[in-house]
């Protein structure tokens, strides 16, 4: 599907979709449990992949009409899957499920789409091998397809912290149901640290204790997953909130309200501060879980995305509208997402007349030297690139057509319907 965006103003109220990060972890945590109810879950292409994996491990996931998931778990002992685990485009699914597969007494095979088969998995495979399992890439390049044989038995492992925090999340979640637990020593500085805080928060909600150590993290073994009252509720997603928030900052003279913005461990809550620092009128009522935002003249700032890699596309679009330079730093790990998001945003915004300077670990957007003009751009099969480019289309001179726009289903199903509801003129082809 291609979507053409016409210049538009936004106004009204938007409800934040549930958090993708929390939903992934909650579905798998319920799988590790005897069972649990997950309320307010995001049902998207990525989270469906995690649900299918739980079912292949011997669990069952039923989605009710109100969006609640009723999950029968495999009680910490996954079956050997009867089929290949297809993680589709979901890197979170592949990393978390790879560690779960290492608990099974047998061999599991994991794969995904072309994009996912290009993403690095090597450090997690090496960690599983160090813990007594067997794990390898069929192409011997550290990328899927992966073959994993368990069960793991070791108790201590070292792993880099600057490639993906999902490796640590995967090992912590699986380690809780091993006999002896797992101690993780970080070989390098940890990036995307708030995502580990999300993991620790979800584990605690499911009755599992894991904690920071001087050199990394540890989780005791022989624990059971069991949320209080058998239920867990997923909070709103600040990665997704970044798009209507930015839309309000650049294209809402009348003001836009975002509901479901309750505080949590999500690092991407930083987008509220980013928009405020750039000069938009923004007010976050944390108690009510609402954000009110309206547009104003924006100025470029410097932003580190070391802990918030998913915000880079949104910030890049804000920088294209702002006066002066917006310098996004500590961004090298953003290159290892669904696509190389640093290069993708530089290239596609460039088609719209935006001047950028790209370095290995940074992206600078020269707002004062740019003119946003409607163009045909490539969504790169990446939900965050698509949504960020849609924002640029709101204030570009002329129509902007985004190719491959259906990939928003990965994290924000109904994204374009939400835009229409708040006044955006668009056409699907």
Automatic annotation (TrEMBL):
Its EC number is 2.5.1.19. GO terms for cellular component: cytoplasm. Keywords: Amino-acid biosynthesis, Aromatic amino acid biosynthesis, Cytoplasm, Transferase. The active site is at residue 310. It catalyses: 3-phosphoshikimate + phosphoenolpyruvate = 5-O-(1-carboxyvinyl)-3-phosphoshikimate + phosphate. The keyword Transcription regulation does not apply. Phosphoenolpyruvate binds at residues 20, 91, 119, 166, 341, 384. It comes from the Archaea. The keyword DNA-binding does not apply. It is found in: Cytoplasm. One of its GO terms (biological process) is chorismate biosynthetic process. 3-phosphoshikimate binds at residues 20-21, 25, 164-166, 192, 310, 337. Residues 7-419 form the Enolpyruvate transferase domain. Pathway: Metabolic intermediate biosynthesis; chorismate biosynthesis; chorismate from D-erythrose 4-phosphate and phosphoenolpyruvate: step 6/7. GO terms for molecular function: 3-phosphoshikimate 1-carboxyvinyltransferase activity. CDD domains: EPSP_synthase (cd01556). Pfam families: EPSP_synthase. Its main location: cytoplasm. Gene3D superfamilies: Enolpyruvate transferase domain. Belongs to the EPSP synthase family. Monomer. This is 3-phosphoshikimate 1-carboxyvinyltransferase. It comes from Natronobacterium texcoconense. The gene is aroA.
């Amino acid at each position: 599907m291609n979507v053409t965006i016409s210049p538009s103003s936004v106004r009204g109220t938007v409800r934040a979709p549930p958090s993708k990060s929390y939903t992934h972890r909650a579905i798998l945590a319920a799988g590790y449990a005897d069972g649990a109810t997950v309320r307010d879950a995001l049902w998207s292409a990525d989270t469906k992949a995690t649900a299918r994996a739980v079912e292949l491990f011997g669990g069952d996931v039923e989605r009710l009409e109100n969006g609640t998931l009723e999950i029968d778990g495999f009680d910490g002992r996954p079956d050997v899957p009867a089929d290949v685990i297809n993680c589709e485009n979901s890197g979170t699914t592949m990393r978390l499920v790879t560690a779960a597969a290492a608990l099974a007494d047998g061999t599991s095979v994991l794969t995904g789409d072309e994009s996912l088969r290009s993403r690095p998995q090597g450090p997690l495979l090496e960690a599983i091998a160090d813990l007594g399992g067997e794990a390898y890439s069929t192409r011997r390049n550290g990328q899927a397809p992966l073959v994993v044989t368990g069960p793991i038995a070791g108790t201590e492992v070292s792993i880099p912290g600057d490639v993906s925090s999902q490796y640590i999340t995967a090992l912590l979640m699986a380690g809780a149901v091993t006999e002896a637990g797992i101690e993780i020593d970080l070989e390098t500085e940890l990036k995307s640290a708030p995502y580990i805080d999300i993991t620790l928060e979800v584990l605690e909600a499911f009755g599992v204790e894991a904690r920071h150590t001087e050199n990394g993290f540890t989780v005791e073994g022989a624990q059971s997953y069991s949320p209080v009252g058998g239920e867990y509720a997923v909070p709103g997603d600040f990665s997704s909130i970044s798009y209507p928030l930015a839309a309000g900052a650049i294209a809402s003279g009348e003001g836009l309200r975002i509901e479901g913005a309750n505080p949590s461990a999500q690092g991407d809550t930083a987008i509220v501060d980013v928009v405020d620092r750039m000069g938009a009128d923004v007010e976050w009522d944390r108690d009510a879980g609402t954000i009110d935002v309206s547009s104003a003249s924006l100025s470029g700032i410097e932003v580190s995305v070391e802990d918030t890699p998913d915000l880079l596309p949104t910030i890049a679009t804000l920088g294209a509208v702002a006066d002066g330079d917006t310098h996004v730093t500590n961004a090298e790990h953003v290159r290892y997402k669904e696509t190389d998001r640093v290069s993708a945003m530089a290239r596609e915004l460039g088609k719209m007349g935006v001047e950028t300077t790209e370095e290995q670990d940074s992206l600078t957007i020269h707002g004062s030297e740019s003119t946003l003009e409607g163009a045909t751009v490539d969504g790169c099969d990446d939900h965050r690139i698509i949504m960020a480019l849609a924002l640029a289309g709101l204030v570009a001179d002329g129509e902007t057509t985004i190719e491959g726009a259906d990939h928003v289903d990965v994290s924000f199903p109904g994204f374009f319907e939400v835009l229409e509801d708040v006044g955006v003129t668009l056409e699907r082809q």
